[in-house]
Design goal:
The protein is an alpha/beta fold. The chain contains eleven helices and 14 strands. Helices cover about 35% and strands about 30% of the residues. The protein binds adenosine-5'-triphosphate and magnesium ion (MG).
Length: about 300
């Protein structure tokens, strides 16, 4: 499968340009789309899912033109929106049955397809429970199930781990990487940790523009020799924070243990550490766009 996005622009009413001249090629495995709030991630996802129309530009999915051949394109993709609503009174089984009907799964095959998909997302045991009794993680997995019910080649998931506890988040990431062995997945997130372990390729969107497109390893390479840990008194926090990016802070007996990125401030002992994707993202955003990353992006990544 090959997705080619050429000179894509999207303006909303009121003059907001949500996407500016976006060019990307996405071919196999898992593709991560990273960016802060309002960067344009959901807009790009909705356009790929054929739910928003581009203002200009071209998108081809396996040679099919996304705007001219919407019906064929729709048949080959599944989409989990950022805000996924369920019918709380239905059971998981009933919900998926309903979605399978809507997606044109042949009637005779619906039962087996629903059972198979429930199995794939580890909800088989909960299939007869009303969806309103599901945990947040279970609802997200049901969201993946509804996107997969017609066995699409491409899965588009928009911020799928928001609101999940750390255990569910890891479980969810593992589920996606299993699915990614046979399908192309495009995953958007503002949480760096969602991308680090799983994605083959990633792009960073910032204010509607693609500012990075490549492998996680190449991004990490750009932050080489810029990651440090430092122990300092609490009073020194603001001095260091004024010159470097703080990745994490752990207080310990009146001192602070900090992980930081950037040029070391004089007067403290900085011990070098190997850069990870969080460090690299912080470093890149600061260098390229002058944007400071939301602290929650990193908090949630832990
Ligand atoms: N339907 C709409 N009408 C007008 N403006 C919109 C609409 N949808 C999004 N926008 C604007 O377009 C820009 C990009 O929004 P989008 O939702 O694509 O960002 P995002 O990266 O998904 O953000 P988040 O991380 O908060 O989900 C924002 O400035 C947003 O306010
Ligand atoms: Mg969004």
């Amino acid at each position: 499968m090959l997705i080619e996005i050429v000179n894509l622009n999207k303006s909303y009413r009121g003059g907001i340009q949500a996407l500016q001249d976006v060019n990307l090629k996405i071919d196999s495995g898992m593709f991560g789309l990273l960016g802060p709030n309002g960067a344009g991630k959901s807009t790009l996802m909705k356009i790929l899912a054929t739910l928003e129309i581009p203002s200009s530009g071209n998108i081809k999915i396996d040679q099919l033109d996304l705007t001219l051949q919407r019906k064929q394109v729709r048949a080959s993709l599944g989409y989990l929106p950022q805000f996924f609503g369920v019918y709380p009174q239905m059971s998981g089984y009933e919900f998926l049955y309903f979605i399978a009907q809507l997606n044109g799964v042949p009637r005779k095959k619906i039962h087996s397809r629903v059972m198979e998909t429930l199995e794939d997302v580890a909800l088989a045991n909960a299939r007869d429970r009303k969806v309103k009794t599901y945990s947040g993680g279970m609802v997200r997995r049901l969201g993946i199930a509804q996107a997969l019910i017609h066995d699409p080649k491409l899965l588009i998931v928009d911020e799928p781990t928001v609101g999940l506890d750390p255990e569910e988040r890891i479980r969810f990431r593992n589920l996606l990487s299993t699915i990614g062995k046979n399908k192309v997945i495009i995953l958007s997130t503002h949480i760096v940790g969602d991308i680090s372990s799983t994605c083959d390729d990633l792009a960073i969107l910032s204010q509607g523009k693609i500012v990075y497109w490549g492998s996680p390893a190449t991004l990490i390479q750009k932050a080489k020799s810029k990651s440090w840990v430092v122990e300092c008194p609490e009073e020194a926090y603001s001095e260091i924070a004024a010159h470097m990016q703080i990745i994490s802070t752990i207080p310990s007996s009146g001192m602070l243990q900090m992980r930081v990125v950037g040029e070391p401030v004089r007067g403290f002992h900085f011990a070098p550490v190997k850069a990870n994707l969080e460090d690299a993202y912080m470093n890149f955003m600061e260098e390229q766009t002058g944007e400071r990353v939301d602290e929650d992006m990193l908090q949630e990544a832990k």
